[in-house]
Design goal:
The complex is a heterodimer of chains A (about 375) and B (about 525). By secondary structure, chain A is mainly alpha-helical. Chain A contains 14 helices and 4 strands. In chain A, the strands form 2 sheets. Chain A has a two-stranded antiparallel ribbon. A two-stranded antiparallel sheet of chain A has the order 3-4. The longest helix of chain A is centred in the last third of the chain and has 36 residues. The chains are: A mainly alpha (about 375), B alpha/beta (about 525). At the A-B interface, helix 1, helix 9, helix 10 and helix 14 of A face helix 1, helix 10, helix 11 and helix 13 of B.
């Protein structure tokens, strides 16, 4: 009996929470629609903006179809998905990583330093990315070690480290990295050309698909690789097994000989690596200049929402990240349609609230199931 | 109220309660006569607890009706149940430990004079009640200072204080010593004499025989019958009704033939998480082919002893040798690799990972070995499933979807089978077994005991910790009584009676005389009852 039923194994990519996630997103957009209507604007334009951020729009100035809204969507999706993976990975091991923001900044700083200090050479961007991944991993790993060895709450530690990362970035960029030429307070010396991420993209010209104004960069490819790596490590490997076991029941994992200290540290380091990569992609792919960071970019925090909607699974996080990217891309489109763009913030907020409600429901459900089990055990 | 009754205190007619995927109660009928002691017997997952939860208002039934004293009622929450005169004593007491007995009893209906709490009246009433029903307990004592048996009396007093005339006792003897169980049975008889109706949920057949007038048997969510308990009713008969097939009570054991020393515990002391020493200078040897039982009341260092042996917590002094090798500083995984198995006391906390599948739980301790992990650390899922399919078959684990069922969704007995399957499949030299049958039904108990005996016959060294003296006495070759973290006596099978061991467990009498075998008893402070 057991052998035939093996095929019933639930698909492990998104899991069984799909329906709720979809419902939560739709509900968020629905309430957003009502709000748009309440402020006296046409809600149809909201949907139009979201639609356009997926398929592009007709650009009158250029006289042709422009894919750049889609390009924006996918470009925004890079840090969203990567930070979502960061949050999700830690979440699967039973931790709440609020530190993706700090790990993202440390990754960005490492990439920044390599891009500014090392003279340009072809393939420099690979070196930058490697440094960013390592820097993010260290920043996350610190939290893991603090948590595993000294039982310091990862929530508190990551919030603190976010601030440390921000001001460390400013300190290093202002006083250590080579100075900017025109404006020393806002820019360091320019990034070496070899460090910038190559753009990829397509557009349609005279009915022919050509490479062009699609503003995507190869960070997107790295993001896809990260999604696959997440899935592979978590679902397929020995390491993932010990991480999942630790995440579900740390005590039982420990009792079975799994080293929970190392599982927690490793998980936080890998979690940080995803966020670090996000930092490099944003700096080298989107910003493309030696920005001295002024405040947190908030990609790390959006990652929390992305991971929650994606249920901390690889494919789910990818889809959720692209969706949040689309909302962000619609942000600028809505300006032209006379819709207050803050509606996007409201929708994002609503999705987070609804998803949190779901998490609450799950906790209640799990608690009741446990009680039931306990009762049965008597 | 009694005029309107039809002779029945409780009638639950055709009660059905379903949970997603499970029918917990399928058209169950329970009829309890006025002023009788009515036992509810059933295997685990048979629906006893669900039925009582429906009666107590914790769950709303999907179908059927409930009559209390002949009147149809709707019990939507426990407060309604209380107002109908139904009181419930849960298996795990719901008491506030730093409150006094009286404070606990009046909790939620505190007597007030103006804004001030007045406990004087309540104390008098509690004292009167405890006198009337033989529930000896000091109304002013704090809960943390009284024994588990007395705490249970407080729970019973709570139901009496709220004028309950129907008292439900959920597995009342699970936490008690043999003497306390006898006292409890006396209390039940007295309650009955004073006109109360008692419903007792238990899986201990001898207790049913001792106090119950009638017994309703549930099997797989259905009531299979209600029988009168007479002196002629045999335990065998009850067990057969409950399980649906004849059950064997005696365990077949080959003669005791111990081999070499496998596990040597030398003078170890262990602290609990708060740094309080719970195990003190504990020494014991366990040989190949023997089962050594640790008999003791819960909380006398058994948990800490097992934590120390399995590697969950460090020892503060002494040595633990496995096959002559000192393992006291080794990691848990190293101990597993050296041949130490562990069936933990708390299967939810330590035994299994509920979120993982059965298959994943069966390889929880050796998933990293070459057997299950291939190149680049990739798991060999085919091997893992092959292993678990075989174990499911071999250990008769019943589940909805076979190997891919989440372990957390199994019933208690099947979870325990998964854990035992994993531990036995690793073929350890020494096996630590804690509370292997707690909360399980007769069928599962029979099976699990058989498995443990089979490991003994294979020449394994087994340390069995159980709060059920019957279990210790029927399985073990040697028994070590433990009190306050030290051994108070070691004896061979059949050397002492249950009540002698019971007294020792309670710390009343201590025997310094060992059984002439290695690992002699460490005499401890005697005659100091807590």
């Amino acid at each position: 009996m057991a052998i035939e039923t093996r095929k019933k194994r639930p698909p492990s990519l998104i899991g069984s929470f799909r329906a709720t996630s979809v419902a939560v997103v739709l509900l968020g957009i629905l309430v957003g629609t009502v709000i748009v209507a309440c402020v006296g604007k046409n809600p149809a334009n909201l949907f139009k903006a979201i639609w356009q951020s997926f398929v592009g729009q007709y650009n009158r100035g250029m006289g042709r179809w422009s894919f750049s809204p889609l390009g924006n969507t996918l470009t925004y999706a890079i840090p969203y998905v990567l930070c979502g993976l960061s949050m999700g990975f830690a979440n699967r091991v039973g931790m709440f990583n609020i530190g993706a923001e700090g790990q993202y900044m440390m990754g960005m700083l490492a990439a920044h330093a390599v891009a500014v200090c090392v003279p340009s050479f072809p393939g420099q961007w690979l070196l930058c990315i490697a440094f960013a991944i390592v820097a993010g991993a260290i920043w996350g790993g610190i939290v893991g070690v603090l948590k595993a060895r000294f039982k310091i709450s990862e929530v508190v530690a990551t919030i603190m480290l976010n601030y440390i990362a921000l001001y460390l970035y400013r300190l290093v960029a202002l006083y250590i990295l080579p100075e900017g030429i025109s404006n020393k307070t806002y820019q360091t010396a320019p990034l070496a050309t070899g460090s910038l991420l190559r753009g990829i993209g397509i557009s349609v010209r005279n009915g022919v698909v050509v490479l062009g104004d699609f503003q995507l960069n190869i960070g997107f490819v790295f993001m896809l690789i990260a999604v696959v790596a997440f899935w592979f490590i978590m679902e397929k490997t020995r390491l993932g097994f010990s991480l999942r076991a630790t995440g579900f029941n740390k005590e039982a994992a420990r009792c079975s000989g799994i080293n929970d200290t190392s599982a927690i540290s490793t998980a936080m380091a890998i979690s940080g690596a995803f966020a670090g990569l996000a930092g490099a992609c944003v700096l080298l792919g989107s910003l493309r200049f030696g920005r001295i960071i002024q405040s947190q970019d908030n990609y790390g925090f959006m990652g929390i929402a992305v991971a929650l909607v994606g249920n901390s699974k690889a494919l789910g996080t990818l889809i959720a990240g692209i969706l949040f990217g689309a909302l962000r891309s619609a942000y600028s489109l809505m300006q032209f349609m006379n819709i207050p763009r803050e509606v996007v913030n409201i929708i994002e907020g609503l999705i987070v609230i609804f998803i949190a409600l779901r998490s609450g429901l799950e906790i209640v459900k799990a608690y009741r199931a446990k009680q039931l089990l306990k009762k049965e055990a008597r | 109220m009694s005029e309107s009754t039809n002779g029945y205190a409780i009638q639950m007619l055709g009660v059905t309660k379903t949970f997603p995927g499970i029918i917990a109660n399928d058209n169950v009928t329970l009829e309890v006569k006025e002023n009788e002691v009515h036992a509810i017997l059933g295997e685990n997952g048979a629906g006893k607890s669900t039925l009582m939860s429906v009666l107590f208002g914790s769950y709303a039934p999907d179908g059927g009706k409930i009559l209390i004293h002949g009147r149809e009622v709707k019990i939507s929450n426990p407060n309604v149940a209380t107002s109908l005169g139904i009181g419930m004593v849960h298996q795990h007491f719901k008491l506030v430990h730093n409150y006094t007995v009286t404070e606990n009893i009046v909790l939620g209906r505190e007597p007030k004079k103006g804004l001030v709490l007045s406990l004087g009246e309540a104390e008098k009433k509690v004292a009167a009640l405890s006198d009337k029903y033989g529930l000896q307990v000091d109304p002013k004592a704090k809960i943390e200072d009284i024994t588990v048996g007395q705490q249970q009396r407080v729970e019973i007093l709570k139901t009496l204080y709220s004028d309950s005339d129907i008292i439900i006792l959920d597995e009342p003897s699970a936490v008690l010593t043999p003497q306390e169980i006898d006292e409890l049975l006396d209390i039940i008889r007295l309650l009955q004499k004073e006109g109360k109706t008692i419903v007792i949920i238990t899986h201990k057949l001898n207790e049913i025989k001792a106090v119950a007038n009638r017994c309703t048997i549930l099997r797989r969510g259905k009531s299979v019958g209600c029988i009168d308990i007479t002196p002629e009713t045999s335990e065998q008969e009850l067990a057969t009704l409950m399980v649906g097939r004849p059950v064997k009570f005696d365990v077949d054991k080959k003669p005791f033939n111990p081999g070499r020393k496998i596990l040597e515990i030398k003078d170890i002391s262990v602290n609990n998480a708060l740094g309080v020493e719970k195990v003190h200078d504990f020494s014991l040897d366990i040989h190949a082919g023997e089962i050594v039982g640790i008999a003791g009341v819960d909380g006398n260092g058994q948990t800490e002893l097992l934590y120390a042996l399995s590697g969950l917590s460090p020892i503060t002094k002494g040595q633990i040798l496995l096959n002559g090798e000192d393992i006291s500083r080794k990691s848990i995984r190293q101990r597993v690799e050296l041949g130490l198995g562990h069936i933990p006391e708390d299967r939810h906390k330590h035994g299994m990972v509920g979120g993982l599948t059965i298959a994943e739980n069966t390889v929880l301790k050796d998933f990293y070995t070459n057997k299950y992990t291939g190149k680049f650390g990739v798991l060999k899922n085919d091997e893992i499933y092959k292993n678990s399919d075989a174990l499911i078959e071999q250990f008769d684990v019943r589940s909805g979807q076979g190997s891919v069922t989440p372990a957390g969704s199994l019933s208690g007995g099947n979870q325990q089978k998964v854990i035992i399957a994993r531990e036995i499949s690793l073929s350890p030299d020494a096996l630590l077994v804690a509370q292997p049958t707690r909360g399980l039904d007769v069928g599962a108990i029979e099976y699990i005991r058989k498995r443990i005996i089979a490991e003994r016959e294979k020449g394994k060294a087994i340390l069995l910790v159980s709060f059920e003296l019957d279990e210790i006495m029927s399985l073990c070759d040697r028994i070590a009584a433990i009190s306050k973290g030290s051994i108070v006596g070691i004896f061979g099978e059949g050397e002492k009676t249950a009540s002698e061991i019971g007294l020792m467990m309670a710390g009343v009498k201590s025997s310094a005389k060992g059984a002439g075998r290695p690992g002699s008893a460490a005499a401890s402070d005697s005659g100091t009852d807590r």
